Each structure stands twice: as C-alpha cells, then as structure tokens.
Amino acid sequence: MAIPFTNEGSEGSEGSEGSEGSEGSEGSEGSASSVAGINAYSGRRTSTLLARALWTTQGEITRGIGGIGTADLNAISLTVKKGLERWSRDVRARLYASELLADLHFDARSRDFAELFKLNAAFPATPGGALAIAPTTVAKLHRPRYDYRPDSGAPGTAPGADLETELKRVFELAALRADRMGEILSQVTIPYPFFAMVLNLQPGRHRHIYELLAAAFNLASAAGQVFKHHFRVARPADRTPLIQPVLQTPGHGAYPAGHATQCHIAKTVLAKLRGTGAEATDQLEKLANRIGENRIVAGLHYPSDIDQGKVLGEALGKHFIEMAKVPGSALEWLWGEALAEK
After folding, report:
1. CB-CB contact of 288 with 310 (8 Å)
2. What is the CA radius of gyration of the chain?
3. How confident is the model at residue 6 (pLDDT cuts 50, 70, 90)?
4. Per-domain residue ranges of the chain
5. Confidence (pTM)
C-alpha cells in the first residue's frame, strides 16, 4: 500500500524573510496597504481597486507601442538549478515530498507489526527485459506490548503488567509539569527554535536549512501518521481519567510518538548536514530525547511511544539523506544549498 502524498502547508513557514505586508504601504498604513500593498498584488488579498488601477496604468504607459513590442521570442531555457531557484517555497516543498514518498510502500498485512519498504527499481540492461525491483526495509515497528490485543492472535500475555508499568511512568513524570510547562507549551508547534538554539541557525543566513528541516518534518509526519493509523493505539487519558493531560489530546493515535519521530529525523539530518562535532551531536540527541519526554510529562504519551518514535525518526533520517544523493533531484539541490550555508 503506497503512502499517500501529504504536504503540511503550515510547516516550513519558519525562516521566511521579512514581512511582506509592510511593503508598498508607506504613508497611511492599514487600510491603504490592504488595497494597494504587496499582499494585494500577490493575490493574498483581493483588491479590485488595485487591479483596476494597474489596468488603467498599463493602458497609458504602453500607449503608442504596436504589436507585442520588442519581446524576446527565444525560449527561456531553465536548468534544474535555475528552475528550483525560481519556484516558490511551497512548490519546492511538494517536489521534496513527492521524491521522498514516491518509492515508499507500507506493508500492513499484520495487526501486530508494520513495515515501511523502499522499492528500488533497476531498469533492464537490454530492451524488453524485465524491470528488477529490490525492496529494502526503511523501518519496522511492532505493536507495543502495553497494547497487546487478545483478538490479534499474537503470542504474549494480556496487557496488564506492561500497561500498568507504562501508566505508572506517565504519572511519575507528571511531577515535572511545573518545571517543563514552558517547554511543553512552546513545543506544541514544530520546535524549530530549539534546534536553531543549538546550532545558532538564523532565518536569513540559513533559509535553506530551515527549508530542509521542513521537508524532513513533513516526511516524519506522513510516515508517522500511517503507522499511527495502522496500530490505532488509545492515549493514556483514554485509559484512565486520572492522567488529565495539560494539553488537549491530539486527534490521532499515540503510537509511535510524532514529536519524537520529527525530532529524531531532524537530529539525524542536521548532524549529517552540518558535520557537527561530538559536543553538538550530543546536544542534538539530548534535545530530541527531552522534547519526546515532555510529551509524556504532558500526559499525552506512553514511554514506548517515545522510544519507537526515535527508532522511526532515525530510520527516516537515513532515508532522507540517501534520497538527497539522487542526481538531478530537488532534494539534491536543496541539500547542496543548505550545505553551503555557514
């Protein structure tokens, strides 16, 4: 079963430069900018006034010019590099997502485990030959022991002891809520600032690194949601009313943990991209682990969710790095641009 294409439009907006709304609004700000500013021109705001003003202006300044003027009739030839530089970030984001997901397939034939494959296709050496496909495992997760289901036919024992152990740990870590609340609330959204803090990333200087991180987070979200849906694991607060999470329970399954998956793919990709030394690499590891643990503290996850989110994130990080080596791909271009940012 192929993983469905997904693109989270809100991700990847970090690191955008400037505030477009302030351009073209000199003089009377507010209402003037809403009808004549750059947002109106880009189509982000509808402005019939601006459209008519541009139309009448064009008519006057082109008066007396016959035909099509002195237009360049030669075709504009764009290389892959020039094309990617010209396209908008949201278009490039869709290209990255397509490349990362194109050859991935999800094996969901068992309720007790699921496997993500990459289908490596080799074209035949001679015309008419058969296309060779060699699948390799990207990631494989088993249903957590605390969620053992007697009707699944899997060997093992009833959830009792494992579930009790996991829930006890959730209760124990709740004692850290007072200390971690700022982190918990700040990490509801994608935690770009925390990784930026470790590596001193700045939106202007490192815009392609931010773009690369957005692509990695999108991959983690897409793959993670497929695993979550397959296992369909209830959250801690669904099992006992005493958990009382400090955040609203997300509208998807607990296992594997999405934040852990995203943070460990970020850790893996950034460590490879930046060639971080032992000190920075250790900090990235500790950061990813802490953000994952904060989700337990908040009452949203079991410890096993975080552990396997890390496994999935690291596996997806390796897949991301390999896909960035494909010649002529959008990801190869992005990796090169990000690599050049110091």
Report:
1. yes
2. 25
3. very low
4. 22-55, 98-339
5. 0.83
